[in-house]
Amino acid sequence: MITLIAAIGENNELGKDNQLIWHLPDDFKRFKLITTGHYIVMGRKTFESFPKPLPNRTHVIITRQKKYAPENCIVVNSISDAIAICPKNEDIFIIGGGEIYKQSIDIADKLELTRVHHSFEADAFFPEVDLKNWELISEEYHPKDEKHKFDFTFLTYTRKR
Length: 161
Hints:
The protein has about 160 residues and is of the alpha/beta class. The protein has a single domain, classed as Dihydrofolate Reductase, subunit A (3-Layer(aba) Sandwich), CATH 3.40.430. About 20% of the residues lie in helices and about 35% in strands. Key enzyme in folate metabolism. Catalyzes an essential reaction for de novo glycine and purine synthesis, and for DNA precursor synthesis. It catalyses: (6S)-5,6,7,8-tetrahydrofolate + NADP(+) = 7,8-dihydrofolate + NADPH + H(+). It comes from Flavobacterium capsici. One of its GO terms (molecular function) is dihydrofolate reductase activity. Belongs to the dihydrofolate reductase family.
């Protein structure tokens, strides 16, 4: 199963200057819980936004750079190559950025979204989701609190077949 996992603002904002534009510890916990032990597919800029590779996950990085070879990562040059290199019977998580989401939305089986209930200035966006093709199977609202500056909702969608 191919799952796109992302935190997005009210207008599908993902980030600005290759950084997240909010800090939501519960979203980080959910991301870790869902993706640990799996293949995670990302663009080079998303990978480079991490201080170091994420533990207990296999990193598949998409780039056009010929000699790009971070240690203990798989490097490919297309979304199709990234999917092909992952085990066929395991869950694959596409984790960004905007261009990678755009290239993979049509092949995704599932969306794990954190909708941040605020509008932000951004330069990277999640693609528009046509909800007539998706079924909402889980929704969990979280109000802002001392650790979370914004209200947010965890949303899980599966593709209608």
